[in-house]
What we know:
This protein has about 120 residues and is of the alpha/beta class.
Amino acid sequence: MQILIVDSSVQVIDRLEEILSEAESVCAIHRAVSYNEAAVFFKEDMPDVVLLDSGLRGNGTINLLKKIKETGSKALVIILSTRYDDFLIKECKLNGADFFFDKYYEFEKIPAIIDSIAANKN
């Protein structure tokens, strides 16, 4: 599976890459630190899963969710957030997010979710 990590923090991306190495089904990991980088990636390639920071600048998270769905991509989107805000969760789900995890305390769930997604695709 191809994974795209979109987060404004390089340290978070590095940590996610480290954690994703535990997932048996991951074959490629791509990185983007902004909405623009992620949007360009979607023009060139279609990942299977997107790990998306809920706090991209300029409402970038919601705009990127919309862009992903506009491309016709079947990518599953996992929103990573530092806060549980009911409005944010609702807005993300309305715009196509599939999962919502706490960025700091639920990282360990991600490899199992990725492997489960891969198993269900086959």
